[in-house]
Amino acid sequence: MSAPDIDDWIRDVKSQPGSAAIGMILAHQGIVRGTSRAGDPVTGMFLTADLARFEEALTEARTWPGIFAVRGWVNQGRLSVGDDIMRLVVAGDIREHVFEGLQRLVSLIKTEVVGESELA
Fold first, then answer.
1. What is the pLDDT along the chain (120 residues), one digit of tens a residue?
2. Is 71 helix (H, G, I), strand (E, B) or coil?
3. How many CB atoms sit inside 10 A of residue 58's CB?
4. Cβ(73)–Cβ(93) under 8 Å?
5. Cβ atoms < 10 Å from Cβ of 54
6. Which positions ≥6 away from 82 have C-beta within 8 Å?
7. What 3-state DSSP class applies to 8?
8. Domains by residue range for the chain, with CATH
9. What is the CA radius of gyration of the chain?
10. What 3-state class would DSSP assign to 54?
11. Mutual orientation of helices 95-112 and 51-61 as an angle, nearest 10°?
């Protein structure tokens, strides 16, 4: 499945009723890098995702203080360096809510939704 266009999501969010309450939109595009956190070279990764839990996480994020809209997509399978892992858009009222919301959502997805195995 190809990754959706973040700009399309942003246009959609801005066109929703009540969007005048939005003061910030943040986007996250995670990609496979060529090194591990420890600095060792990798050729890619294998990614699994619990898609039901992913949708639950997006729904949960929409209830957080100040969050107006959330969009998300996650990849799966064998990925090469440079491939997209996930894309997220979080829109909300003020920067503190949006920064916190995006960081919290990414952490939730990384701990409860996806499983990653780096490929040497």
1. 688 999 999 999 999 999 999 999 999 999 999 999 999 999 999 999 999 999 999 999 999 999 999 999 999 999 999 999 999 999 999 999 999 999 999 999 999 999 999 998
2. strand
3. 20
4. no
5. 19
6. 31, 32
7. helix
8. 6-113 (3.90.1170.40)
9. 15
10. helix
11. 160
Is the pTM higher than 0.85? The answer reads yes
Give the separation between CA 47 and CA 95, rounded to whole angstroms: 31
Taking the C-alpha atoms of residue 118 and residue 44, their distance in angstroms, rounded to an integer, is 6
DSSP, res 21: G
CA distance 107 to 117: 17
Q: How far is CA 36 from CA 43, 83, 84, 113, 117, in A?
A: 10, 15, 16, 20, 10
Q: Which two tokens stand for residue 3?
A: 């990754």
Q: Hey, what amino acid is at 26?
A: L
